[in-house]
Amino acid sequence: MNALNKKSIEDVDVAGKRVLVRCDFNVPLKDGAITNDKRIVSSLPTIQYLLSHGAKVILCSHLGRPKGEFKPEFSMAPVAARLSELLGFEVKLAKDVVGESAKALAAEVKEGEAILIENVRFHAEETKNDPAFSKALASLADLYVNDAFGTAHRAHSSTTGVADYLPAVCGYLIQKEIDVMGKALADPKRPFVAILGGAKVSDKIGVIENLLNKVDTLIIGGAMAYTFKAAAGEAIGTSLCESDKFDLANDIVRQAKEKGVRFLLPLDSRCGDKYDPDCHMVLANVEEGVPEGYMGLDIGPRTEALYSEAIRGAGTVVWNGPMGVSEWDRFAGGTIAVAKAVADSGAISIIGGGDSAAAVEKLGFAEKMTHISTGGGASLEFLEGKELPGIAALNDK
């Protein structure tokens, strides 16, 4: 997917136009209050560009999973309040999505002002990408801007459907995602090192197979490493394992060898006698495997050293998925070691959303990364080489 051939907000004249902007305002709420406004803040450059160029801005997003019904706990009201604070003027909230209230506010919004319509997922038609609903949404505006990379892998009305009825361009967030990730995959600074963690090989098959043709080194951590180990005949105790994926795992190892890709699996594991942060912990080496009755919950110190050494000389690093149960302090060491190695490597570093992004943020390494993707599922599909519907729908330059 060539990143550079899609039109962005800078390629169109927005002055005096009503511009529908699909943002990712899917923020965490507790008791009706926003606990982390990072997604709102990161949408500001696009919104402010449009406002300063005389656009009449109509913002939309989903929030949570209201399953096609109006539910007050999923209202965009807290988002409208936070946007008003950040932008320095009142961002009015419509009481509906495509009803009378939204139509009235969209009709009266002035140049350099913004309004917000209600949660697009209050309509079941949104996730079905219903043409009539898409058309109703599109009728509010003259131009469509997609700036929600986190939902770009979903073909919904507000992410792809409206592009059938309006000129469609990307905002700065999506532009950065496709530029940075697209370049890393198409023309990486070498050596190119990919780090994949998480629980299941099955979730990452597409990514592994796509990356095997591009990377110099592939590092495997997280529970999915035990499927590779068990497939090779190593004792893994009660570790999580997909026994139906042994042939695939062995085939991946064989492909890596054929392609000259350095394929790294853990040399040791921190193991627990149960899946519990307070379990009894032992260290198991690859030579004797995981003891019976124990499960691998993190990579061990030898592996941390091996992986850190492999990352140290990298030109480009792509990382998706933790090395262990990183939300438990005793089993976060592997993820911390990898995060530190990536931060210190000086490489072009791309963190693929989800758990790895959360770990990097929590550990305070975010500033040292080149790019932290805003979309977990979307960045995975991008790394698989799939075309994302929300990006495919945009107009070419």
Descriptive tags:
Rossmann fold, 2 domains, 6-stranded parallel sheet, 397 residues, 16% strand, alpha/beta, 14 helices
What does this structure look like?
- With 397 residues, the chain is an alpha/beta fold.
- It folds into 2 domains: 3-173, Phosphoglycerate kinase, N-terminal domain (Rossmann fold, 3-Layer(aba) Sandwich), CATH 3.40.50.1260; 180-383, Rossmann fold, CATH 3.40.50.1260.
- It has 14 helices and 17 strands.
- The strands form 4 sheets. Strands 5-6-4-1-7-8 form a 6-stranded parallel sheet, with helices on both faces.
- A hairpin with a 2-residue loop joins strand 2 (29-30) and strand 3.
- Helix 8 (224-231) crosses helix 9.
> Residue share in helices?
25-40%
Question: In the CATH classification, which architecture of the largest domain applies?
Answer: 3-Layer(aba) Sandwich
C-alpha Rg, in Å? 23 Å
For this structure, what is the CATH homologous superfamily of the largest domain? Phosphoglycerate kinase, N-terminal domain
* Number of domain modules: 2
Major β-sheet annotation: 6 strands, parallel
CATH class of the largest domain, named Alpha Beta
How large is the share of residues in beta strands? 15-25%
- Strand-pairing-aware structural class: alpha/beta
The neighbouring-strand order within the major sheet is 5-6-4-1-7-8
Please report the total strand number as a whole number.
17
Flag low-confidence runs: none
The CATH topology of the largest domain, please? Rossmann fold
Shape: elongated
State the end-to-end CA separation: 14 Å
Q: Mean pLDDT across all residues, rounded? A: 95
Count of separate DSSP helical elements: 14
